[in-house]
Design a protein that fits this description.
Shape: globular
Bound molecules: pyridoxal-5'-phosphate
Largest sheet: 9 strands, mixed
């Protein structure tokens, strides 16, 4: 009945996640509170791995894009599930290292990795560096040479595919800060440069066309473009590209109207395109990498808030104010993103109201959602915002000096803290 499988209603008419009563969670740990279901995370990981096994003979790797939700416990779970890990900063590498994540299964992305970050990646033995531009290629060669190491790299390519999604999360088109362009010859130039270098070994190509994408077609198109380029590289330089990283970006259900394609369907269709293109072009089938972030963490999480004041402005709207907001979930402020709202204590009731959920920050744009349909709602109620497992905690801030909420993991009816709630002392930790 809800958008995520891990959610249900118990005999008290309370919302449950992973079999745990959300009203009890709010009482025990306080609000605002992020709650994640471990079972759902593991299930999502397995589903992606299974799709590569079923449709591509297991010749691939699923790397979890840790920017969606990065913390030590998440890294441990993902490592246990046999996935790789996308990291985009020294901080994400450090988190994973501290969790014992094998460095050789890490892929280091980013359009402007600093020399310090590159040094750290070399030192920890990160498995692949996804090189974004020629400046970075030169820097990496110099630093790898000085460290007497050889690093395996992929090039980030702009395949020129326009995914139909919000412009802030669209990344595959020419006008993008990410990657090397195909049309201008920039990408081929980079390949030829890399071939001359001693301390970098070009093993693959990468593309990532955007996020929250619902159609399979742009992914098929991107795969085709990338394989054509692999064939062109072979022809012009004799070099065999062994790895093809097709990125992430699979859309999830935030509201019932969202209709993401089943992920299995994605791999089935993309594998078909890869196999056919390889046959047509006379090239070997590459090892495939896919990088889901949102689709692994997003549906597994919810955020619990307590309702403070309710302001009914006749003929305008009803503002329901909560004890969190853009500091724990900036996605409405960034993208006008939509969410589903449930009154945790009346979860099974019909939705009879439309309200605007407002945060407590000093910004009019500090909303979680406009015109959200909900059950009857009163001051003091606990409400749940669904599918907040990705890009919520990881995007949280201390604006207005608001401490970040705790993250609780539930599993088989039990709950545990995986990230502590920030204290007031934490807020001044670095103040002099
Ligand atoms: C953000 C990102 C992803 C994950 O995107 P989702 O939409 O969360 O699946 C994968 N790869 C790269 C390079 C990214 O930047």
């Amino acid at each position: 009945m809800f958008i995520s499988e891990c959610l249900s209603v118990n005999d008290k008419n309370h919302l449950t996640i992973g079999g745990v009563d959300t009203i009890e969670l709010a009482e025990k740990y306080g609000t605002p509170l992020y709650v994640m279901d471990e079972g759902q995370i593991r299930k999502n990981c397995r589903m992606f791995r299974h799709s590569i096994d079923s449709y591509y003979g297991g010749k691939g790797l699923v790397t979890y894009a840790s920017k969606a939700f990065s913390c030590k416990e998440m890294c441990r779970i993902v490592a246990e599930e046999g996935l790789g890990l996308d990291v985009v900063s020294a901080g994400e590498i450090y988190t994973a290292v501290q969790a014992g994540f094998p460095a050789d299964r890490m892929f280091f992305h980013g359009n402007n990795k600093t020399p310090q970050e590159i040094a750290y990646a070399l030192e920890t033995g990160v498995g692949r560096i996804v090189v974004d531009n020629l400046t970075e290629l030169e820097l990496l060669e110099k630093m790898a040479c000085a460290a007497e190491k050889t690093v395996k790299i992929l090039f980030r390519i702009k395949p020129g595919v326009d995914a139909h999604t919000h412009s802030f999360v669209r990344t595959g088109q020419i006008d993008s800060k990410f990657g090397l362009a195909l049309e201008t010859g920039e990408a081929m130039e980079a390949v030829k440069q890399a071939a001359k270098l001693k301390n970098v070994e070009l093993v693959g190509l990468h593309c990532h066309i955007g996020s929250q994408i619902f159609d399979i077609e742009p992914f098929e198109h991107a795969a085709e473009v990338m394989l054509n380029f692999i064939a062109q590289i072979k022809e012009e330089t004799g070099l065999t590209i062994q790895e093809l990283d097709l990125g992430g970006g699979f859309g999830i259900k935030y509201v019932p109207e969202n209709d993401p394609v089943p992920y299995d369907g994605y791999m089935e269709r993309v594998s078909e395109v890869v196999k056919k293109s390889c046959q047509k072009l006379g090239i070997e089938q590459p090892f495939i990498i896919i990088e889901p972030g949102r689709s692994i963490a997003g549906p597994a999480g919810i955020t619990l808030y307590k309702v403070g004041s309710i302001k009914n402005i006749p003929n305008v709207r009803t503002y329901v104010a909560i004890d969190g907001g853009m500091t724990d979930n900036p996605r409405y402020a960034l993208y006008q993103s939509e969410y589903e709202l449930v009154v945790a204590g009346r979860a099974g009731d019909a939705r009879t109201q439309s309200i605007t959920l407002a945060g407590k920050c000093c910004e009019s744009g500090d909303l979680i959602g406009k015109d959200m349909s909900t059950q009857e709602i009163q001051e003091g109620d606990i409400v749940a915002v669904l599918a907040t497992g990705a890009y919520n905690y990881s995007m949280a801030s201390n604006y207005n000096r608001i401490p970040r909420p705790a993250v609780v993991m539930v599993k088989d009816g039990a709950s545990r803290i995986i990230i502590k709630r920030e204290s007031l002392e934490d807020l001044i930790r670095n103040d002099i």
